[in-house]
Structure formats: structure tokens, C-alpha cells
Amino acid sequence: MSDDHVYLTLAEGHEDDTRWAYGTGFEDPLHGVDTAVPEGVDVRELARVCVALADDALVSAQRLAEWTTRAPELEEEVALANIGLDLLGQARLLYSRAGQVDGTGRDEDAYAYVRDADDFRNVRLAELPNGDFAFSIVRLLVLSSWRLAHFARLVDHPDPVLAAIAAKGVKELTYHRQYAADWSVRLGDGTEESHRRMRKALELVGPYVGELFTAYDVRDEVVDVLRQVTEAAGLPMPVYRPLPGAGRAGDHTEHLAPLLAELQSVARALPEATW
Amino acid sequence: MPGRPNHVTLIPNEWSVGKLVSMTTTDSAGAPPEDALQEHFDATIARDQRIEPRDWMPEGYRRTLVRQIAQHAHSEIIGMQPEGEWITRAPSLRRKAILFAKVQDEAGHGLYLYSAAETLGADRADLTNRLIEGRQKYSSIFNYPTRSFADVGVIGWFVDGAAICNQVPLCRSSYGPYARAMVRICKEESFHQRQGYELLLTMMRGTDEQRAMVQDAVDRWWWPSLMMFGPPDDASPNSAQSMAWKIKRHSNDELRQRFVDMTVPQAEKLGVTLPDPDLKWNEERGHHDFGTPDWTELKRVITGDGPCNDQRMERRRTAHEEGAWVRAAATAHAARSGERARKGTAA
Known about the structure:
The complex is a heterodimer of chains A (275) and B (347).
Chain A: H1 5-8, H2 43-66, H3 74-101, H4 108-114, H5 124-127, H6 133-154, H7 160-189, H8 192-215, H9 219-233, H10 256-269
Chain B: H1 34-46, H2 59-78, H3 80-84, H4 93-118, H5 124-132, H6 150-167, H7 176-204, H8 208-227, H9 239-244, H10 252-270, E1 280-282, E2 287-289, H11 295-305, H12 309-322, H13 324-346
Antiparallel strand pairs in B: 1-2
């Protein structure tokens, strides 16, 4: 390896962008996939489905990003970022698909940066503050189990793009769920303190689980996963007390608006800028 | 990495000393005399071959390496903070993904480097405590604040650039595990540097306000970046021994000059001005002349009086302390699982 090579070539052309994971000239995340919508698919409904799933992913990724430099161990720093990056990638693909089919031609950033809290359709569990590591793990366990169960069905969606996004997501979510399950068992079985924190976390997520099952008919799969994990961890199942309203209908907690204000702050301060 | 194709083990393996045994206190029967070990070590260094974890090495070499690798690891971890602040605020989803991945890479670099230090008998938890208690340092560059999103680009360009200048020669460092970690790290750093520079190119093609943000960030980060190469050679106490041991390959001033020479044309292409009235090409030397960094400022920042020292340490300390119950739970669960497995086997 020449000492100077990487540095000297910096100002030269960027023709070999495809080598880079995120590319420097990477514009369309759906490049190469047949984007024609098959006959019979309701495009407005398809866009609605994509935006809701993208909002869940973006808001979750934002919360995971808040763990950066605050995780309990370096391995967790890397893992939480990995999960956040996967979800961010899912959000980008889903927003792009929505923009292609809803007739507005919006790009991914138009969905993420220009809409207000009322327009977001994420479930409320995703927007709650991170709390302690136990709460973040329990939330991740519930959300990843739910999303995975739903994605496993979307793999057969008539829209080939959504089906492809789901197929990619299934692999990622399987890891997210495994990570959350492993930590749930460690914390449930670990010390008195970690056990107590896990019980508390399960109590806190309880009210936000109901709307997940209203959104998608995957209750049995999710309950089955939660039962296995809580049993192995020596923890009780969460109690699904109902909470009025639904994130999918635009009802949110007071936590979403500040999360979006931060996420959108630079983009909105310089609306004419290019990034 | 080529490894050691021509390596010949002149001293039989059974004479090699485990990583936790200090040679200076070893005089058990059968061990070779220290002179012979030293001679073998010196010859390995002279042949430009690698020292590996199980090889004998002088205590000073081990100590110097542990100190340098630990400081490097700490720098990666503390270095996540200034840019990490902007992940949640990145102005496009693409920039958010790039920055998130970059900061994650830094955590990964910290992990490889702590592992390299562990091959010398150090312990990650102990090194972390030394950092948190202020007994070990990290690069002073991370004690400066990030004031706008342009700082993310300028850090990529200057700070990762300076790190590459410093670290590429370390890929040939005499200590094998360190050299190999550096190969991987340098590849990723060069990728980060391109991304930073590309962000700046994009911003310079944007609005006047964006161009002003870039110039402002360049003005703030230029001198601290030059200080990343350390004090001038005549005031760098540990350099000579490190160079003799081939832990280090070039002097601070040589690397600083190289950084300036490489950066000047990049600044021109970008359309920014480097904030140094004395910066000009010297035909005779074949290098750029440049002004003298404010060494009293470097000293101040190193000794704890930089703009963000307290904030950086506080964040790291809080994360460590708030994570203590998680680590304790993982340890307790692992111990209990091990016990259950043993009972299961016995039964």
C-alpha cells in the first residue's frame, strides 16, 4: 500500500461510486427493480401502506440514533447503529416507492422533512422516548416481532417493489428480533435490578401494543414470540391495555413533534439548500 | 496484508513468553538470557519484520504500544461525539445514513484497537477506566465543537485526512496486530474522507449561505487539524524511541508537511481559502511553507482546557456508568447459564 495513494486521489473524479456502500452519487434506491405497478393494484392504498411502514422505520431509526455514544458497551453501540441503519434503509425505499405511485413524484426527503407530526402515520410505540436500555430492548422486541410478521406476508404483495423491499427487510428484522430477544433473556435473568427494569419496561409498552394488532392481523405470531422470550427470561407477558386513538390515524403522543423538530431542523432552516 | 513471508523463528517457541508475564521479572531456569531475547527482538525490527503477541519484547516497547493503541482507541470512541451530534439532524436521509454508518465505523475501530491492546496484556475495561479517570488521553481535535452541518464535511476532509496521513504509515508498524488493525481502519477512513469532501463539494454548489458555512468550518478546523500531528519534532519527547522501534515511521513535522501539501490543491478545487496568510508554495523546497500553529493552544487543549473537554468526558463517563447495570446483568446471566450447562452435563 502506497502511503499517499488514498489521499492524493481525493480530488479526482468519483467514477467508481458503485464501490461504496452508500455511494456518493447514489440517487435512486430502487434502481434496477421493475417499478411498473401491476394492473389491479390500488395505487393510493399502496402509497398509504408504504408511508405508514416508512414512518415506523424512520421514527425508530431516529430513536436508535439517539443511543449513539450512550450505549452500555461498544458492541451495543455497533449493533444498535446497525439496526438503525437497516430501518433507515427500509424507510428510504418505502418513501421512494410511495412517491413513485401516489402521483406526487415526491422524493424520500419530501416525506421525511416536509410533513408535520399530524401527517405521520407511525405507531405510537415507535415515538416514545428511549428510556433505559431495558425499555429500548423491550420496544425493539415488540416492534421487530410485529414488523417481521407483517413483512413475511408482504413478500407476496402484488406490487413487486414492495415485495422486494419486504424480502430484504425480513432478513434484517430477523436479526433485530434475535438481538432484542437475546438481550431480553440476559436482562430478565441477569440481576435483580435488570429483572426489575425489564418488568417495568413490559408494563410501559403494554398500552401501546393494542394498536399494533389493529393495524395488522399478526397477533398470534407476535404473542407466540413474546411468550417464548418472556418464558426464557423469567418475565411476565405484557398486558395489552387499550389506549384510545391510533398512530396510523395520525394520533400521536406529545413526543413525536419534538422528535421531528430535531430531525427536520437543518433541512427546514435552509429550504433552498442542496445536500 | 502480506504477513511475514520470510519470518524465521530463531528462538524456540517454548521460550516465548505469555502476554501477562513481565520479562523484567522472569529469571526462571530454562529461560534464555535477556540479552539473547533483546538481540533477537532488535534483529526482527532491523529486518522490518513483525513482532507478534507471543514474541518477547522489551517492557518499554510493550508499554509504549499499549499507551499509543489505547489513546488511539479512546480517540475513536470520543471522536464519535462531535459528529454523532448531527446524525439526528442530518438534512437528508442519504446524509443521515452516511453519517450514521461513519460514526458506527468509529465504534468498530475502537473495538479493533482495544482488541489489539488486549494482545499486549491490557484489558478493555481497565483502559476505559483510565480514560474516564483522565489518566489516558485521546486526540485533542475532538475537544472542539461542531457548530453546523458543514463541520461534518470538514471533519471528514481534514480530520479523517490527517488521521490517514498519520495512520497509513502505521500499517507498516512493527507490531503485527496494530499494523493489521490499521490496514482495515485506513481503508474505512479513506472512505469517510471522500464522503466528507463530497458533502463539501455539494454544499459549495448550493446557496451562498451553504458556501459561507463551509468556509466558516474550514476556518475553525484548519489549525486544530494541523495540531493533530503533535508538537514539533524538537519538542516531541517520545518520538525518537518510537521511530527506532518502528512503531512510528515518520516524524510529526514530516507528516504535517505532507498533509498541508496534499490539502492545498483540494482546497483550491473546492473553492475555499485556508486561513493562513503565510501559506505559499516554496519552489526551492518543493513544499508549501505555512504558518506556525498556536502550540500554547494545543497544550491548553491537551491538558484539559479545550472548549469541549469536560463535555466529552462527561458523556463518556455517563454512558459507562449508566451502562453498568446492563454489563452486570450480562455477566450474571453468562455465569448462571454456564452453571446450568455444567449441571446439565453432570446430570
